[in-house]
Amino acid sequence: MTKYKKVGNLQIDPNFYEFILSEALPDSGLTTEQFWADFDKLVHDLLPENQALLSKRQELQQKISNWHQANNKKFNFDNYKSFLKEIGYLEPEVEEFEITTQGVDKEITSQAGPQLVVPVNNARYAINAANARWGSLYDALYGTDAISEKDGAERRATYNETRGKKVISYAKAFLDQTIPLEKGSHKDVENYTISDSKLIVSLSTGETISIEDTSKFVGFQGAADVPSSILFNNNGLHFEIQIDRTHPIGQTDPAGVKDILMEAALTTIMDCEDSVAAVDANDKIEVYRNWLGLMKGDLTTTFTKGTKSITRKLNEDREYTSPTGEEFKLNGRSLIFVRNVGHLMTTCAVLDQTGEEIPEGILDCVVTSLLAKQELLGRGNFKNSEEGSVYIVKPKMHGSEEVAFANLLFTRVEDMLGLDRNTLKIGVMDEERRTSLNLRACIRQVKDRVVFINTGFLDRTGDEMHTSMEAGPMIRKHEMKLSTWLNAYETSNVNVGLATGFKGRAQIGKGMWAMPDLMADMLQQKSGQLKAGANTAWVPSPTAAVLHALHYHETDVPTVQDQLIKRSNDLTDSILQIPIAKNSDWNREDIQQELDNNAQGILGYVVRWINQGIGCSKVPDINNIALMEDRATLRISSQHMTNWLHHGICTKEQVLETLKRMAKIVDRQNAGDLNYRPMATDYEHSVAFQAALDLVFKGKEQPSGYTEPILHRRRKEAKAMFQAQTN
């Protein structure tokens, strides 16, 4: 039993208190006494409003469920819409306005490019993501299915020259498309040099030319007559042609080109939320300690790869010479955001005056901002924000009142930490139905500090299903992406962002490519997000960021946004189209296939979350396609099974049999993991398996269909059990 340290009206976990005392507060300009006194007041001032907002969620949900129960047999859309207005779920329209956010970095305002999201408690992932600002195009192509393995170009342990030639051909075609020569192809180049501030390109024909658009040549490394790299800028995004005639690849290239280095992940979200399993004070300390290391620039991690011990640290900035001879630098790292948790969950790291856990979102905002102050004060090795801002993504907010509360929290934290007003910038995740329908009103509440909105298919679909649980059985999951509401939601998000002045000021983002092994498919499909008006989109890995960067060279997003900004149609009616099945008479095989796929995804993710504290996993689906799973994917899968069970599409016995059968498959899939604890050997005493049952059989009663309450309770149970077994 933890013995808490009493400070004012608060009770602090002793380990957490020591972390704040010895690691967070030094050099912050704040005294320990004042920090805790101000935090005490902030918590007790804001706690009642936090609780009231959560109560309103429950009240609205109950009214909607009651309405559907009373009107299912005589559903009338106009009556439904009027009802939502009457209860305040649909908010009044707000007058036209534009955001006024100041002090925003160029990676957000003027550059368009990929965005990574990684669990901040995994130091290796966090460093890799921050360093993914730059990545090798040759490696990304060679190591993935972006290059076909046909005709002898298969991937193998040793270098395959045939595959290498395909990679180089692909890369040279990229150069021809992006920085075309005045004549010929980059495949024909024998030498790149700089003379009299100009790029000189020598062809195999003996001709000397340059690129068509000479303004795209912006710098180089090495000597002008023998450069080691040449820097270009296209559509606001950089890339280098790297030259080394002694390199194994460079030796085979007529121009000595060894690689093309791409500017890739312009921004990275360090996640404290859906991809993290942080259920107690020690978990939170790990999350915050890594965030502090990123802000100070001294985070490192050492791991073994094969027989080698490797230490990773943050990359230095990249140094260049301009065509006219001036020295300059480009950031070697992504611009880093931090995603706090939402308004719902509480944390045992700090208790209030009644002994109850305080809202975790309040603690996150205070502590992540406190730690980021180290970077603002210049205590770190690097600058994250050249503009002196702290970027906080706030998830899972429902409607404008909750966004207004987040704004109040940010304001209070700025005052508490001695930060200028609107130093704390906010990213509003448009992933809940009430926010989608009232997005303009939500943005208005944070118009002076907002830097980001995005769409997220998984959480948004989970909320769609939970909100309309009583409306009827939902369509199959794979049909959701073609549904009326989803397409309207994706379009409306961009429309509202552009109408409120996001172009050139803030990010409009799109969701994750969830299949990290299917890069060829990503290259074919993900460009559609840019053409839809997004200036950033989530990718699952640094490699994917490099490949997705190719799309931003193909499409000039500001030009697309200029074309789309004229759209002003109201899509509320389409967003309100509930994705219930018009004909739910599926055959037994189709029903079982849906159950199997949902169950495998749930179990494959939950077993690692509960037993190993892994918040983000690559889990194979029923077709053995690896999918990136986090709590958002878990929410949609569990809510879908809950919905079908509630409406009699399947039985409890059928669901239980499915989960047991799929648990055996998941156990086999994880047989090579020495730390894995199987579920099927003892279903009743497997905490992970019981958590999966809870998520489905108790899914209807979970707040907004969120998975966190069950996961946190069961993870704590598992940790206690493992500790008892160890002792």
Automatic annotation (TrEMBL):
EC number: 2.3.3.9
Top enzyme category: transferase
Membrane-spanning segments: none
Domain Malate synthase G alpha-beta insertion positions: 159-234
Pfam families per the UniProt record, alphabetical: MS_C (PF20659), MS_N (PF20656), MS_TIM-barrel (PF01274), MSG_insertion (PF20658)
Malate synthase N-terminal domain: residues covered: 16-69
Catalytic residues identified in the record: R339 (proton acceptor), D630 (proton donor)
InterPro entries: Malate_synth_C_sf, Malate_synth_sf, Malate_synthase_TIM, Malate_synthG, MS_C, MS_N, MS_N_TIM-barrel_dom, MSG_insertion
UniProt: glyoxylate binding residues: R339, E431, G456, F457, L458, D459
Positions bearing Cysteine sulfenic acid (-SOH): C616
Residue ranges annotated for the Malate synthase TIM barrel domain, each copy included: 336-570
Subcellular location: Cytoplasm
Keyword Cytoplasm applies: yes
Ranges of residues in domain Malate synthase C-terminal: 590-679
SUPFAM superfamilies: Malate synthase G
Subunit structure: Monomer.
Function: Involved in the glycolate utilization. Catalyzes the condensation and subsequent hydrolysis of acetyl-coenzyme A (acetyl-CoA) and glyoxylate to form malate and CoA.
Family to which the UniProt record says this protein belongs: Belongs to the malate synthase family. GlcB subfamily.
Protein name: Malate synthase G
Gene: glcB
